[in-house]
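Extended Data, panel c. Modelled sequence:
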Amino acid sequence: MARETALEGKLVVLIGGSGFLGKYVAQALLERGARLRIASRNPRAAWPLRPLANLGQLQFVHCDVSKPASVAAAMLGADAAAYLVGAFKGDLDELHAKAAGRAAALAASEGLDAFAYVSALGADAQSDIGYANSKAKGERLVLEAFPNATILRPSVLFGEDDEFVNRFAGLIASLPALPVFGAGAKLQPLHAYDAAEALANALSYPRHHGGQTYEIAGPEVITMMELNQRIAVSQNRQRLLFPVPEGIETIFATLPGTPITRDQLALLRAGNVAGGTLPGISELGVTPKPLAVFLDRWMTRFRKNGRFGTKIKAVR
């Protein structure tokens, strides 16, 4: 698919644009000639994007989504906006739902052409999991305020600077044996830039993509155990990986300071795979790339002898 240029010269606001996904979205939009306004509580975190932009193409504004006046100021003069705020801790109902709905309403009152809301696979208004429940509420409030908004439900995202693959990579590099939580849980990991391309396409053509909900996921389904095995192989390390019994998982996730919360564990157990009943990433013009394309290169820095290490056989 040819590069979309419908956003060239248009001003796009990325609410929460200094986060992990936001930086990939910004890159995709800058490549299309869009003007960007990164609206964030910590806009300095997005300053590394500056070399990618032409003079006057990139703006940074402080924005607190809990304060409508702050969001309204960020929306002034914009043509399109995307709500990228996401968290596993804090007031999720406020961050994922109420604030998203207010942002969509402000976008509508400002007369924006397009609005996108980044939700999550597994978003469910009936769920007892705060993350899934609040994302579903956010979808509803956004569509009520901006009926032509596009909802994107991404699977777990990976990238060279992510906090997902790299978390496990660090543990595998330092521990001879590693417990695997949710070992049988199925994932459909999606490269963050593929997610960014999908979002950019949605904003480019709101007449075609507006008012729809898309499940965007990677090209392959793997388990958590398989993911850890692949990371170990890419690091040229032999590691003992063993599944954690469900009862111990639950106790561990309730302890303070652990690397996984109860919500994250519940989401992991539920799996992170597209249901197939909604349009997917291909309908947004993107062919997602598998994890294997990147993993060996990314894991070089975790190897004992760097790129000079001997490659071990892959686990099947």
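The chain has two domains: 11-157+190-216, 165-185+220-273+288-304. This feature is highlighted in the accompanying rendering.
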